[in-house]
Structure formats: C-alpha cells, structure tokens
Amino acid sequence: THQWRGIIEEYRDRLPVSADSPVVTLREGGTPLVPAQVLSERTGCEVHLKVEGANPTGSFKDRGMTMAITRAKEEGAKAVICASTGNTSASAAAYAVRAGMVSAVLVPRGKIALGKMGQALVHGAKILQVDGNFDDCLTLARSLSDNYPVALVNSVNPVRIEGQKTAAFEIVDMLGDAPDIHVLPVGNAGNITAYWKGYREYAADGVATHTPRMWGFQASGSAPIVRGEVVKDPSTIATAIRIGNPASWQHALAARDESGGVIDEVTDREILRAYRLLAAQEGVFVEPASAASVAGLLKAAEQGRVDPGQRIVCTVTGNGLKDPDWAVAGAPQPVTVPVDAATAAERLGLA
Ligand code: F0G
C-alpha cells in the first residue's frame, strides 16, 4: 500500500494533467539518491548520485514518457513516434504497450547500444534504422508527425520536460533544499532544461531557498553547445549523447546563464574513467553517457574549480546493463576452474 505511485500521482498538482487524464504509468521516478563517498572525498564536497537507471526501463526517459504517452492517449492518438539514440525508444515502446498504442522509432544505424535495441524489439516497436545520425532521425520524426497521424514523443514535446522536471523535485524533497550544484550529461539538452524548470518552480514556491548552479557536460566529439556551432558528424563512445544539433540548445544556454553554471566537455577517456570509478568504487553501474556528469565533476575538481564544502548532485541517467560492452572490454577474462575447492581457493588467492 505504500508503493511509489509514479511521478504523475506523486506530483499531480505540479503537472499539466486533469482528473480525467488516462494516466499511463510504470511507477517511474522515486529513484535512489545515493551518497557518493569516493566522489565526496575527491572533491571535498557532499556528493550524491541521482540514480536514474533505477527507472522501469532503465533511464530517466520514463519520467517524460509517462506524461507524453498519457497526453497522447488523452488526445486519442493510436500511434507514437520518436527519434532516439536508444533510451527514448526503449521507453516509448514500453509505455506505448501500456497504453495499447503502436510505437515507431527511428534510430541511427549501428549507433545504438544492444540492450536498448533489445528493449524496443521486445516491446514490439516498429524500428527503422536510419542511414544518418540522431539529428537526421529527429528531422524525419518531426516531418512524419507533422504529416501523418502519429504523435511525436521526443523532448521537443513540452510535456516530456514537465515529466522530467520531477527529478529536481525529488532531490529537493530528499535533501530538504536544493543542492549548490547540479551536474548532468547533455545530449539533446531536454534534461538540463527540465531540471532547471523543476528547481525554479520549487524556489519560486518557497519549497527550496535557492536554485543550484547547473553544470552540463557534453562528449568532446559531440559538443555543439560548447563549440557554439552544429557538429555535422558527431562522434563519441557515449552513443546516448552522440548529438550534433540539440533541439533544446537555447534552453540549455538559458539554464547555464540564469543559474550561473557552465556547459563544458569531457573526452571519451575521461568518460570511461568515471564510468569505471562509479562501478568499481561507488557500486553504481551506469551507461557511458551517464558517466559524463561525474567525469565533468572530477575534471572541474582537478582544475581547482570546485570549492569544497558544497552539496552537489550528479544525475547518472541510464543503467549500465544497457550497454555492457564497455564493462567487458579491457577487463581480464575470468579464469576457468574445475569443480574443486582447493583449486578455486588457490585461484581466488584465498589459500
Ligand atoms: N544520458 C542518457 C543515458 C541518455 O539516453 C540521454 C539522451 C542523455 C543522457 C542526454 O539527455 O538529450 O536530455 O540532454 N538520450 C536521448 C535518447 C537522446 O534518444 O534516448 P538530453
């Protein structure tokens, strides 16, 4: 009887739904805010991880998708469409099933993690692999939703942002106030837009005394906002944020400037280092894109740009199981042993 009810029921008065809205939910949200001991020691700050990989389909997208699919159903849509680097498509496919709708997803060919593809497939999405990048997929999805009877559920749909802002509410509700800094990875820039909206709303209503500085990190090979220009052929191992022309670019700049924050970049090497640190030292397995937030925090700390004593939240956006290739790559092969305790003990260094 005390189960978390999903973000729409938990935050109904702060979301654009009515009493008659046909709520489509997998009980998303209510994700762990985990104190990060090693990161706190390294930065001299109080660092927490908002573990969004604990959502029903394994990423933060579910917060926006419960809103987008609820709205689509309310408006009588029979089909939904999205462009995706993987997580949005997994989420759209699952929520469409709950709503009894058909989902269509457009993904960049060869550039989405296997786990995410598996999710879209098993939930019965109609998948097109587009010969192009995410930005091309989004252009195509917009054009199809403009011209055919299919609702667009990308974060350019404003109700997606409404749903995703609830992560900021949860953080303030847990900590008792807003953190000093909020760090997150930036791809299409919907999520940084959403958090900033959530924090502003809570501050405006006096639930929080202040808003945090927003720190966003792009992957170096896909850093249009940092460069100030569209990246035609974005590249990074963090396929989730392999985006060269973010739809919410201007909103991301607003979040940065209004909050006194920064949008910077991290290299793939820095991302992988943070990815391994999170798994090996904090016990939190995330997908590579998610580690961009932590990589950015560590980089800033090493450059002396993080004053000690602050309260910092890093969002880690997606579950590590979605893209396990990077966990396996470069790791030593497990040793094979016979069914023999003495040998096993010896190989484990116990004897
Ligand atoms: N982290 C993960 C795991 C993501 O899947 C995404 C975006 C981001 C970070 C960046 O968030 O786009 O709001 O700035 N994934 C989208 C997708 C593009 O299609 O799943 P953003």
Automatic annotation (TrEMBL):
<comment type="function">
    <text>Catalyzes the gamma-elimination of phosphate from L-phosphohomoserine and the beta-addition of water to produce L-threonine.</text>
</comment>
<keyword id="KW-0663">Pyridoxal phosphate</keyword>
<comment type="similarity">
    <text>Belongs to the threonine synthase family.</text>
</comment>
<protein>
    <recommendedName>
        <fullName>Threonine synthase</fullName>
        <ecNumber>4.2.3.1</ecNumber>
    </recommendedName>
</protein>
<keyword id="KW-0456">Lyase</keyword>
<keyword id="KW-0791">Threonine biosynthesis</keyword>
<dbReference type="InterPro" id="IPR004450">
    <property type="entry name" value="Thr_synthase-like"/>
</dbReference>
<dbReference type="InterPro" id="IPR001926">
    <property type="entry name" value="TrpB-like_PALP"/>
</dbReference>
<comment type="pathway">
    <text>Amino-acid biosynthesis; L-threonine biosynthesis; L-threonine from L-aspartate: step 5/5.</text>
</comment>
<dbReference type="InterPro" id="IPR026260">
    <property type="entry name" value="Thr_Synthase_bac/arc"/>
</dbReference>
<dbReference type="Pfam" id="PF00291">
    <property type="entry name" value="PALP"/>
</dbReference>
<feature type="domain" description="Tryptophan synthase beta chain-like PALP">
    <location>
        <begin position="24"/>
        <end position="318"/>
    </location>
</feature>
<dbReference type="InterPro" id="IPR036052">
    <property type="entry name" value="TrpB-like_PALP_sf"/>
</dbReference>
<dbReference type="InterPro" id="IPR000634">
    <property type="entry name" value="Ser/Thr_deHydtase_PyrdxlP-BS"/>
</dbReference>
<dbReference type="GO" id="GO:0004795">
    <property type="term" value="F:threonine synthase activity"/>
</dbReference>
<keyword id="KW-0028">Amino-acid biosynthesis</keyword>
<dbReference type="InterPro" id="IPR050147">
    <property type="entry name" value="Ser/Thr_Dehydratase"/>
</dbReference>
